[in-house]
């Protein structure tokens, strides 16, 4: 993963946090277009919260490594899959 990568949230994705877990829902023009609501666990929710269009991947990684019991290698592996999913649902641009 590129350490200087900076991610930005799609402004057409609404986020609500319930009990520390984020729920993502795309904004659509009509209710007929709504087909998914995405839920994130606490670690993924924290990463989502850190994505601000300014912080580089390396800064987000450093924060998560401090806050959660995860190894450097495991974080990179999990983030690769998570970012792939976020890009697939157009949550990040």
Structure characterization notes:
- This protein is α+β, with helices and mostly antiparallel strands.
- It contains three helices and three strands; from the N terminus they run βββααα.
- The protein starts with 12 loop residues before the first strand and ends in a 5-residue tail after the last helix.
- The mean pLDDT is 91.
Structural key phrases:
40% helix; globular; 93 residues; three-stranded antiparallel sheet
Give the amount of beta strand, in percent: 15-25%
Residue runs with pLDDT of under 50 for 5 or more positions: none
Q: Helix- and strand-based class?
A: alpha+beta
- Measured between the Cα atoms of the first and last residue, the distance is 16 Å
Count the strands? 3
> Any idea what the radius of gyration is?
14 Å
- Major sheet: arrangement of strands: 1-2-3
**What is the makeup of the main sheet?**
3 strands, antiparallel
Bulk shape: globular
Instruction: Provide the residue-averaged pLDDT.
Output: 91
* Secondary structure tally, helices: 3
- Domain count: the total is 1
Percent of residues in helices: 25-40%
């Amino acid at each position: 993963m590129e350490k200087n990568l900076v991610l930005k949230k799609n402004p057409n994705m609404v986020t609500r946090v319930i009990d520390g877990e984020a729920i993502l829902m795309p904004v659509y023009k009509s209710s007929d277009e709504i087909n998914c609501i995405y839920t994130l666990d606490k670690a993924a929710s924290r990463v989502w919260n850190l994505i601000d269009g300014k912080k580089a991947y390396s800064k987000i990684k450093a924060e998560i490594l401090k806050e959660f019991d995860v190894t450097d290698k495991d974080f990179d592996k999990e983030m690769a899959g998570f970012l792939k999913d976020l890009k697939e649902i157009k949550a990040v641009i």
